[in-house]
Amino acid sequence: MRAWEAVGVPSLERWGVGPAVSVHNTKSGRVELTKPVDGVARMYVCGITPYDATHIGHAATYVAFDLLYRAWLDAGHQVRYVQNVTDVDDPLLERANANGEDWRGLADREIELFRQDMEALRVLPPAAYVGAVESIPAVIELVQQLQSKGVVYEVDGDLYFSVHADGRFGTVSQYSEEAMLGVFADRGGDPTRPGKKHPLDCLVWMAARPGEPAWKSPFGPGRPGWHVECAAIALTELGESFDVQGGGRDLEFPHHEMSAAEAQAGFSGLTFAQSFVHTGMVALDGEKMSKSRGNLVFVSKLRESGYDPMAIRIALLSHHYRADWEWRNEDLDRAQSRLDMWRRALPTASDHHADSLRTSIRNALSDDLNAPAALSALDAWAAGWHHGDGTGAEQVSKVLDARLGIRL
After folding, report:
1. Terminal Cα-to-Cα distance of the chain (whole angstroms)
2. Are strands 30-33 and 22-25 parallel, antiparallel or unpaired?
3. Strands 152-155 and 202-207, how do they pair?
4. 3-state SS record for 208-266
5. Three-state DSSP class for 137?
6. What pLDDT sits at residue 398?
7. How far is it, in rounded angstroms, from Cα 351 to Cα 224?
8. pLDDT, tens digit, for every residue of 330-373?
9. Which of 236, 256, 315, 345 has its CA 20 to 30 A from that of 189?
10. Is residue 396 packed enough to be buried (19+ CB in 10 Å), middle (13-18) or exposed (0-12)?
11. What pLDDT shows up at residue 292?
12. Three-state DSSP class for residue 161
């Protein structure tokens, strides 16, 4: 599948290499230094299910991992970034039926709108942008590998993975089994289905249903389960033990827990990801922003209303990626004011102030992607813009572009 167009990232090498990058690892509960092997940082971030447009909650997640991508680049690493698209799943089929349209047409339209939103926000594209449909051969291979280990069983034609076959199950999210059972049904699971060996066991292959798309497989016609899709794509595109598995906090369990368990149960000695990094939830009117609730603010609608995409990006960056926060229109107004202030200050930036600003921004973003601290440093710099002589304008412009993805 085609990703979106890449934007150029200015090199900061003339001002030295950026510091090593630390992020919060859900699995350990600590901020830890990332340690890419052989200079290549590898990251998998879970993508959209394309049955609706990109909302601010989505955008906050992808902007956060864009910061990590940029931090790794500045630290001198190559980056291998992979993102999936769940382009066949129950919510997509349900929305298409409700709209009276073909599910493939709906998916194609929303994927294209997502591309446009990401380009406008200057989010760097993944090297591999992989749909669930095109990943079906890899999913089949992984399910067969799990079968060979004796950890898959059948329920009325569907195939389930025994989650406790991975002795490390539960260590990603750090949820107790009671907590897992408390949220599993609300997050796509089926704990009460008759015939399952354990309520938490998860679907890896769904047998064909009347009127729904299906693909041939050694297990009969059907389609992949959700978690095994991402496990298969990550293993295929990144190999064993990549650096970061990323997504929103609502993916800690079951999605990331079960994807890791499937991969690790299939291949002895494998560690799926070194770090699991999760973004906070964005609310609107006191409720988590979600498609099911319909309380959404769409990036495309903000752009159509004339808001500068850089102001939208700044509004997102003004909150730490791990924080839960609520979207307010004042956030966007304040972001536009900050952007205007920085643009006014740029032509008279001095070398001295630019050097100090570069160091502050690099240090803030390399310490658990602390974008609010970086923006505060920018505000402090801009407040003294009238003292500058313009010799640092190029440096400031490049630092903001390379590290924050903000073009002044």
Report:
1. 31
2. antiparallel
3. unpaired
4. CCCCCCCECCCCCCEEECHHHHHHHHHHHHHCCCEEEEEEEHHHHHHHHHHHHHHHHHH
5. helix
6. 98
7. 55
8. 999 999 999 999 999 999 999 989 999 999 999 999 999 999 99
9. 236
10. buried
11. 66
12. strand
